[in-house]
């Protein structure tokens, strides 16, 4: 059931509010012809084309001053409704000319003609020294529809109305045309296309129907609204879209040669590493331990570690079973609930209960101990081989945790330090990384376990990461907003440009604001509601992911100021 508030506003059940604008008091409309004729009083809107003679364009503007968009979260749908009075294709057997509808970028009045927007010496926008009203349209927001029959016609104009009401775009109405830019009297074909105007006595003139939904977000709910939160936008997995871990890098000098390594664990150089954009996870006992005798003790301990870890921690490999294993999982859950932005990882050896905890989001990252070969100071059987690595991957896959697991290959040491015949050569490591990328492309990175101090071998691993993860990733950039831009409208459309390599396709975009994952889309844009943010500097990031899970990131810093509506103007004549 709906309640009619005024002839233009209808409130529906639930949280959806419908607004309809129509009639001569709320709509200004008319047509212009390339021979200089024009009319803003006739009962019909003409979009005809006549070869060697003239071509028509239609201007329509709705009075949006009575609409209050700031009461709502967003536009659910906006529809332009027209009534087709006549339509005729250019020639027998040819397709009808598509009707193009787009927002006008300059103000105009009912004195508008083909050469002027207001009957003065002002001209329409110019391209290559030629003015034309067709150039007064924001092309990126144009929508097209084929018109093949008389009667009602609906066109979805949600994106452009969103720009008017929430993003500060001035409301200069719409241009409706079936003609490309025309100069002189060319032969572009002949057709008929005619719509009822706002002067139509049967009320069939242009109408704009807008459906609003939801309530505006508030800054204090930002974390709750996020899909996930992480330690910082300056660290993986936001600034760098992969977790590339290396345990036991020999020295700071070696670190400086590792541009692709984004994570380590248990290092004593936390401040230095974090300043370089490298995640360093603190240590947490994996058990069993006599000083952790029960569930409560485990929860207190892990929550305390999370509290004191500036970025997060990595639980050491565990030898717990039964009830004690449940205590460990409970400790991870409580630590994540209490400190959601901490990155919680675990050295994984294929335990189903830990894979399940990761699959439900209570552990952020499983770092599999996937040792293909080991240093000769360790027993040979410590190496599980490639089949063992895949078996542990399959455990994570079964529990929907594959996107939260990386394999830490190893050991990485001098070739003369392996058991004889078990050397992990560069060629073998290269091949295994490639095989892992094929076997489980969803995995968000890879890792290496260094034993000993061989900087050349460490740098070799970084180069292989570049080959298998970085070089094959899409090229992406944030198109809007630009770095340092001041944002003040209620909504801002974030847009990216991405191109996958070879014959792959970009199929997924992930959007981040500061340390929060806020959306995942299949299209290269997403609308950000600034009313849910505090004023000040924010970091906006996007990940582009192709159909083989190769990923890349782009990031800019912007400044959010007071949120204004803007762009809402009346349909003045």
Descriptive key words:
Immunoglobulin-like, eight-stranded antiparallel β-sheet, TIM Barrel, 3 domains, eight-stranded parallel β-sheet, 573 residues, 34 strands, disordered N terminus, alpha+beta, 33% strand
Helix content: 10-25%
| Distance separating the two termini | 36 Å
Radius of gyration: 31 Å
Q: Counting H and I runs of at least 4 residues, what is the number of helices?
A: 10
Number of domains: 3
> Approximately how much beta-strand content do the residues carry?
25-35%
Find the CATH topology of the largest domain: TIM Barrel
Sheet of most strands: 8 strands, antiparallel
CATH architecture of the largest domain: Alpha-Beta Barrel
Under CATH at level 1, the class of the largest domain stands as: Alpha Beta
Average pLDDT number: 94
Shape, principal axes of CA atoms: elongated
Structural class comes to alpha+beta
Q: What do we call the CATH homologous superfamily of the largest domain?
A: Glycosidases
């Amino acid at each position: 059931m709906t309640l009619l508030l005024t002839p233009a506003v209808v409130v529906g059940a639930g949280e959806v509010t419908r607004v309809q604008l129509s009639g001569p008091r709320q709509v200004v409309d008319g047509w212009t012809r390339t021979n200089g004729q024009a009319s803003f009083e006739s009962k019909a809107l003409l979009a005809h084309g006549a070869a060697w003679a003239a071509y028509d364009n239609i201007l329509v503007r709705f009075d949006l001053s009575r609409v209050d968009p700031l009461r709502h979260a967003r536009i659910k749908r906006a529809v332009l409704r027209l009534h087709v009075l006549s339509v005729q294709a250019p020639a027998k057997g040819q397709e009808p000319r598509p009707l193009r509808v787009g927002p006008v970028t300059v103000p105009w009045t009912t004195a508008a003609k083909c050469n002027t927007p207001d009957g003065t010496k002002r001209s329409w926008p110019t391209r290559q020294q030629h003015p034309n009203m067709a150039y007064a349209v924001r092309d990126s927001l144009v929508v097209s529809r084929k018109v093949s029959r008389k009667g009602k016609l609906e066109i979805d104009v949600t994106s452009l109305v969103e720009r008017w009401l929430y993003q500060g775009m001035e409301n200069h109405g719409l241009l409706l045309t079936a003609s490309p830019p025309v100069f002189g009297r060319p032969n572009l074909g002949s057709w008929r296309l005619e719509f009822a105007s706002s002067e139509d006595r049967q009320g069939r003139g242009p109408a704009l129907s807008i459906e609003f939904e939801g309530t505006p977000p508030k800054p204090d709910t930002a974390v709750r609204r996020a899909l996930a939160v992480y330690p910082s936008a300056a660290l993986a997995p936001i600034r760098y879209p992969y977790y590339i871990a290396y345990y036991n890098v020999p020295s700071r000098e070696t670190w400086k040669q590792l541009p692709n390594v984004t994570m380590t664990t248990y290092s004593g150089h936390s401040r230095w590493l974090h300043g370089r954009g490298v995640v360093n996870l603190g240590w947490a006992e994996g058990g069993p331990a006599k000083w952790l005798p029960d569930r409560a003790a485990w929860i207190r301990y892990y929550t305390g570690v999370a509290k004191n870890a500036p970025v997060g921690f990595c639980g050491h490999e565990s030898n717990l079973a039964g009830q004690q294993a449940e205590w460990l999982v409970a400790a991870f859950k409580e630590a994540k609930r209490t400190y959601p932005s901490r990155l919680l990882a675990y050295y994984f050896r294929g335990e189903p209960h830990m894979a399940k905890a990761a699959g439900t989001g209570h552990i952020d990252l499983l770092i599999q101990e996937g040792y293909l070969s080991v240093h000769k100071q360790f027993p040979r059987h410590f190496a599980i081989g490639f089949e063992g690595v895949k078996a542990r991957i399959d455990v994570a896959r079964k529990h929907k945790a594959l996107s939260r697991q990386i394999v830490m290959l190893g050991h990485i040491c001098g070739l003369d330090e392996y058991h004889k015949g078990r050397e992990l050569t560069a060629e073998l490591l290269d091949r295994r990384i490639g095989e892992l990328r094929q076997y489980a492309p969803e995995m968000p990175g890879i890792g290496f376990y260094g034993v000993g101090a061989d900087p050349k071998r460490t740098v070799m691993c970084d180069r292989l990461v570049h080959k298998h993860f970085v070089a094959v990733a899409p090229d992406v950039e944030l198109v809007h907003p630009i770095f340092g831009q001041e944002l003040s409208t209620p909504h801002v459309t974030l847009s990216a440009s991405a191109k996958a390599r070879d014959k792959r396709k970009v199929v997924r975009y992930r959007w981040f604001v500061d340390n929060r994952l806020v959306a995942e889309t299949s299209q290269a844009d997403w609308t950000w509601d600034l009313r849910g943010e505090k004023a000040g500097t924010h970091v906006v990031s996007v990940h582009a992911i192709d159909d083989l899970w190769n990923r890349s990131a782009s990031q800019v810093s912007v400044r959010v100021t007071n949120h204004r509506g803007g762009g809402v103007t009346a349909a003045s004549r």
